[in-house]
Write a structure and sequence with these properties.
The protein is an alpha+beta fold. The protein contains 5 helices and 6 strands. The longest helix is centred in the middle third of the chain and has 17 residues.
Length: 159
């Protein structure tokens, strides 16, 4: 199946992202809340859907650079091992901690993944949020989860 074409790049920033997508299969956007949007710092992929038909990945609750490294690890597994990540399953051995994924509700797309919406010409692409546990191994939807230090890991979908 042929991949749909990417839109025409508008500037050098777009050209760099498109070059990453063509070279690696995806790019990672690091988002800092230095504009006072009220969202936590986070990172997300663009290109996983375009290249591999795998949902894009969003990680919050940690430094954007760390989130970017996690996304690149996930992307590498998608690309090299042809691994597919789905919501509702616990994955161990992917990164240091066990992780799960939740499908991001499309109502969050405008606030969180505006560039991906532009890239894909709308919100017709899947997006998964990678969620990690607290120091006791509990995920945010589990009783007893310790929110301390995890404020930025706001759930953008249902577990």
């Amino acid at each position: 199946m042929a991949r749909p074409p990417l839109p025409a790049p508008q500037d050098e920033h777009d050209r760099c992202i498109f070059a990453d997508i063509e070279r690696v299969g995806w790019s990672v956007l690091l988002i800092h809340d230095d504009e006072g949007r009220g969202t936590p710092d986070f990172a997300y992929s663009v290109g996983l859907w375009h290249t591999f038909r795998h949902p894009e990945i969003l990680v919050s609750g940690t430094k954007p650079q760390t989130a970017g490294q996690l996304i690149n690890t996930i992307g590498g597994l998608v690309k090299v091992a042809r691994q597919s990540f789905r919501p509702g399953l616990r994955y161990t051995g992917v990164v240091v901690l066990p992780v799960q994924f939740v499908a991001v509700e499309p109502r969050h797309y405008p606030e969180y993944v505006g560039y991906a919406r532009w890239l894909y010409g709308g919100a017709e692409f899947p997006l998964l949020q990678m969620v990690y546990p607290d120091e006791d191994g509990l995920f945010p939807w589990e009783p007893g989860w310790n929110r301390t230090g995890e404020e930025g890991q706001e759930l953008l979908g249902r577990p």
